[in-house]
Design goal:
276 residues; alpha/beta; Rossmann fold; 9 helices; 9 strands
């Protein structure tokens, strides 16, 4: 497993590919390293890519080094002959971190990328100092029933319908094989239909975790509270001096949905103090 190619290195931006687990994983390093803060690995949502991280990426990179990644089959990372699974993406991220020479990083992921971030922390806890999960469930049934029904329908049949979307246009602009978009839909749909429940692994996480949701999220409100509880939050009063504060933090951002939370100007001001 090696860094196989560096496309561009200018100022505080490095672009390259890492050969990990049979995959040529595309990554970008934004911003400069800062004293006391490890790099932040930033992971996009399903069918997305680095560019769709929007203003969150430059805002975070203004004060620290950020490693953004195109996950398997997404963006500039060509797909390979294996299913897309959270566990395998987590191993890809861990291999990238090690290849880049970092002993420890912070990890932040949104939606599907949040699932990969969570599995990275579960499978490779020694690599993750702090974890931020934006609109993420720890078990499949944490999403509303109508959302699960929509997940059941994700597949290549939607490719024609999505041709006018920023997701499709971004993919075809940078993907090594733009014609593979229907295959990506099939693979992501297959992932979304897989049952999972990571309750026990979440309860055993050793690092501080911040959960961020929209108040009109696709995640059920009861699941948000259950997730926080598994991490030790919401168990008792913190006390006047904060002596009983949990390591975990929970933020519910107002007036937002699962689909626009990562683009909201409310997100980074909430996350940044936790990561600092």
């Amino acid at each position: 497993m090696t860094i196989s190619q560096v496309e561009n290195q200018t100022g505080d931006l490095t672009k390259g590919y890492a050969e990990v687990n049979g995959l040529k994983l595309y990554y970008e390093i934004h911003g400069a390293a800062t004293q006391g803060n490890p790099p932040l690995v930033l992971l996009h949502g399903g069918l997305g890519m680095i560019e769709l991280l929007g203003e969150a990426l430059p805002q975070l990179a203004a004060s620290r080094q950020v490693i953004a990644v195109d996950l398997q089959g997404h963006g500039r990372t060509a797909d390979i002959d294996r299913p897309i699974r959270f566990e395998r993406m987590a191993d890809d991220i861990a291999a990238l971190i090690r290849q880049l020479g970092f002993a420890q990083v912070d990890v932040m992921g949104y939606s599907l990328g949040g699932g990969a971030a969570l599995r990275t922390a579960i499978q490779h806890p020694g690599l993750v100092r702090k974890l931020v999960l934006v609109s993420v469930t720890f078990k499949r049934t944490g999403s509303y029933p109508e959302v699960l029904a929509g997940m059941d329908q994700v597949g290549r049949a939607a490719a024609e319908f999505m041709k006018q979307s920023p997701i499709y246009q971004g993919y075809t602009r940078v993907a090594p094989k733009p014609e593979n978009f229907p295959l990506l839909l099939d693979k992501v749909g297959d992932l979304l239909r897989q049952p999972y429940d990571w309750s026990n692994a979440v309860a055993a996480l050793p690092m501080p975790v911040m959960l961020v949701f929209a108040d009109a999220d696709s995640v059920q409100a009861s699941h948000m509270v259950e997730f926080f509880g598994l991490l030790g939050g919401g168990q008792r009063d913190a006390g006047w001096d904060g002596a009983n504060m949990p390591k975990a933090q929970l933020a519910i951002l107002p007036g937002l949905t699962h689909y626009n939370i990562f683009a909201s100007p409310l997100l980074i001001p909430v996350v940044a103090p936790f990561l600092a």
